Amino acid sequence: MTMNKTLAHLLVSLGLICVSTSIAQSRGLEVNIMTGSSTGTYIQIGKDIGGLAEHIGRNVTAVESAGSLENIEAVRKRPLTQFGIVQSDVLDFIRTFRQDDVEMSRMARNTRIVFPLYNEEVHIVVRRSSGLNVLADLSGRTVAIGEPNSGTNLTSTFLFEVANVRPQNMLTISSSDGMAQLRTGAIDAFVYVAGAPTKLLADAAASDDLKLLSVSSESVGGYYGTSTIPAGTYPWQKEDVTTAAVRAVLMTFEYDPRRNDYFKQSCQAVTEISYLIKEHLDVLQATGHPKWKQVDLSAIPPGWEVAQCVQTALQEGYRLPVDDSSIVPAAISTPSTGCECSNLLNPVAHRLCLMRICNAE
User: Fold this and answer.
1) What 8-state DSSP symbol labels residue 166?
2) pLDDT at 19 exceeding the cut of 50
3) Contact 94, 71 (CB under 8 A)
4) Where does the chain show beta strands of DSSP type E?
């Protein structure tokens, strides 16, 4: 029995080697970016990167996921999954416990930074008629805190801990389900960590009984920065709201190109896409999701390393193997899906719909 198991493992290993070699030798290695839900900001960022990569013949797909925790695992273990977008506090959590926790150590071992992206706002959504106003008001309440594999779930748990907020019930459900249950009164609030504006909240009507709770820097003890979501960001949002913020980060695996052809091809893909983002950030800022305008490629989270394949793209003498001179702001656009925006009476919401929301579907 033991020999049979050993033989089976050997055959599987040989099979994986053959698959990897076949993939690497095929023309145009498939590249995937793990993002988030279809109503979030991550997936739009991933699609923007994919649109940029098309101009050099790279097929880059933005893959829906539960969020940051799933994304890290996918980049570590899934074939043809070279990138993931994660929250910086998730990376901090892994880094903090990697010395004492074997699984955290495994996650950190080959996880590397590509670029820091933008601030993600912590949206804590309640009913306007509820009388809830600040984070502390959620003690004793029922709150949806995101799916188990999401960054929202980790942020919610940690945020409540450092702010000494004690909800009576914390439901691990998606933000979409949280919105549905908030509308029916089954829960008092749901937490959604995403770069504003996010489609889920922008699709709600101006007349909806919704508002965002404020989170002060004092309440989170300096563990999180703060950001302001301006009034009118969402059709139903009547006032500026200060809330906690985390930074989104594009991450990858530490591919050693000497290991095998698949790693070599993946490293090349990481290098080329990193170069595109660095050299054509202005294009992404002009044509992509509004959050690209906040991106600072130098704001690396402390304690994390930039991947070697990314560092190749940052070298002064590096050049793409294909011509990218035709990439200009007008060259990248998302095809219209025919989404109807005329029902949005709020002028800010209507403009956002025309710019990005309709095309996000």
Assistant:
1) -
2) no
3) no
4) 31-34, 60-63, 83-87, 111-126, 142-144, 169-171, 189-194, 211-212, 225-229, 241-253
160-165: average pLDDT = 92
CB atoms within 10 A of CB 139: 14
CA distances from 323 to 5, 154, 255, 319, 326 (A): 50, 42, 25, 9, 8
Q: Determine the average pLDDT of the residues in 8-31.
A: 46
| CA distance to 92, 134, 200, 236, 276, per residue, from 218 (Å) | 20, 12, 29, 27, 39
Using the structure block, give the residue that is written with the tokens 């013949």: 57
Residue-wise pLDDT tens digits, 329-359: 755 544 344 445 555 444 444 444 454 444 4
Distances (CA, A) of 315 to 275, 279, 308, 318: 10, 12, 11, 6
**pLDDT tens digit string along 297-336?**
988 877 889 999 999 999 999 999 998 887 877 555 443 4
SS3 27: coil
Total Cβ atoms within 10 A of residue 107: 22
Using alpha carbons, select from 229, 164, 166 the residue that is nearest to residue 192.
229
Q: Is the pLDDT of residue 187 over 90?
A: yes
| Per-residue pLDDT at 330 | 59
Distance of CA 236 to CAs 137, 210, 231, Å? 21, 6, 9
Give the three-class secondary structure for 119: strand
CA neighbours closer than 13 Å in the CB half-sphere of residue 276: 27
- Going by pLDDT thresholds of 50, 70 and 90, the confidence category of residue 26 is very low
Query: Of 294, 224, 252, whose CA–CA distance to 86 is shortest?
Result: 252
Instruction: Check residue 176 and give left, alpha or beta (phi > 0: left; psi -120 to 50: alpha).
Output: alpha
User: How many angstroms separate the Cα of 325 from the Cα of each of 273, 314, 331?
Assistant: 15, 18, 11
The mean pLDDT value of the chain amounts to 84
Question: Which one is predicted more confidently, 230 or 348?
Answer: 230
Please name which of 281, 257, 233 lies closest in space to residue 48, comparing C-alpha atoms: 281
CA dihedral 343, 345, 349, 352 (to 10 degrees): 60
Structure tokens at 18: 């053959």
pTM comes to 0.75
97 and 48 Cβ atoms separated by less than 8 Å: no
